């Protein structure tokens, strides 16, 4: 009996590991962990020694998660970049423009989504949206291509419902830093966004630094660490001194600067029609943050919603100039994720 039980367990584990569907091995494990996690009531937050009411707590979280882009804080470099960003997309369509989206692209995008993801404020889930689109895909495709032609991303699809989640293992959940936001966007908008991001990746990924590991195809944190350790060993074998600096970029996605994104897209030669619709995608965005029974509406002027399709590749665009510059100076940079990177610099031979 025990042998049969053991054999059944082994076969079940092998079957689980061999799954090739969109769920993946680890997602199922996390799902089980999340089901056993206790739900907690939203606590009144504390700000500089003052206990806030529910409304004040929600407003504080919205202010921290989605800071405003203040021109008065610009230094000279930021002013130059901001001025350049206002002009880089002024030209009309030219020969360097992306062709219309195809039915093949649309089918691939719809098939790439996880049907269990939560919908946006309109309540339309992926199965509803996909069935509606596939009923007559030409209708949605015509609309998407018109958006590409006009350089326009619909406003209703830029409104994110923000759910506030606790960061695990924190001692004080009256502190705003113990929470993180997840933005739930309308599925229809995410389908259009993924069409755009797929095109954008095709244009920019080959031009990004080869030392970029985060959110890159066929690369991962493990690759970065492997290369890092290999580099350290090579230098130590050559009896050289190595300096390692670890950086933690707090609120990376929330602080992504839109003017620099526009400038980077132009520098990398992204077609003008694609740049214009991404420009529209970044403008007039809005969040609806819910906490402790309160809802706070806030317009955003910088940052990428955590949970958006475009956030990772846009962050890579912002990080790329730093990687390119550091490489020119002979400093080895190993970014791990959106919020951390490893920098190595070779100093001198050991005596």
From TrEMBL:
GO terms for biological process: DNA biosynthetic process. It comes from the Eukaryota. Residues 146-351 form the Reverse transcriptase domain. PROSITE patterns: RT_POL. Coiled coil: none annotated. Pfam families: RVT_1. This is Reverse transcriptase domain-containing protein.
């Amino acid at each position: 009996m025990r042998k049969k039980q053991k054999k059944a367990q082994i076969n079940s584990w092998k079957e689980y590991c061999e799954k090739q569907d969109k769920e993946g091995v680890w997602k199922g494990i996390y799902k089980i962990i999340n089901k056993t996690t206790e739900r907690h009531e939203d606590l009144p937050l504390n700000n500089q020694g003052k206990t806030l009411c529910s409304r004040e707590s929600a407003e504080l979280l919205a202010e921290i998660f989605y800071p405003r882009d203040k021109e008065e804080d610009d230094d000279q470099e930021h002013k130059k970049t901001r001025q350049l960003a206002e002009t880089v997309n002024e030209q009309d369509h030219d020969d360097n423009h992306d062709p219309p989206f195809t039915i093949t692209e649309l089918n691939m995008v719809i098939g790439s989504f996880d049907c269990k993801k939560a919908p946006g404020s309109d309540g339309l889930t992926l199965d509803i949206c996909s069935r509606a689109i596939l009923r007559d895909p030409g209708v949605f495709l015509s609309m998407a291509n018109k958006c590409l032609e006009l350089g326009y991303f619909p406003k209703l699809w830029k409104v994110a419902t923000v759910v506030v989640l606790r960061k695990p293992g924190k001692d004080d959940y009256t502190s705003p830093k113990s929470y993180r936001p997840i933005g739930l966007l309308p599925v229809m908008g995410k389908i259009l966004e993924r069409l755009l991001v797929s095109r954008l990746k095709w244009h920019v990924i080959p031009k990004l630094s080869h030392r970029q590991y985060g959110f890159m195809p066929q690369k991962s944190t493990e690759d970065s660490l492997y290369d890092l350790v290999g580099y350290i060993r090579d230098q130590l074998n050559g009896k050289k001194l190595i300096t390692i600096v670890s950086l933690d970029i707090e609120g990376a996605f929330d602080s992504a600067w839109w003017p620099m994104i526009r400038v980077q897209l132009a520098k990398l030669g992204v077609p003008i029609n694609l740049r214009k619709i991404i420009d529209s995608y970044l403008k007039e965005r809005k969040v609806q943050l819910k906490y402790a029974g309160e809802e706070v509406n806030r317009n955003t002027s910088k940052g990428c919603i955590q949970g958006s399709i475009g956030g990772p590749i846009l962050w890579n665009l912002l990080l790329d100039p730093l990687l390119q510059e550091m490489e020119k100076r002979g400093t080895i940079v190993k970014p791990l994720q959106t919020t951390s990177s490893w920098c190595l610099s070779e100093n001198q031979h050991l005596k």
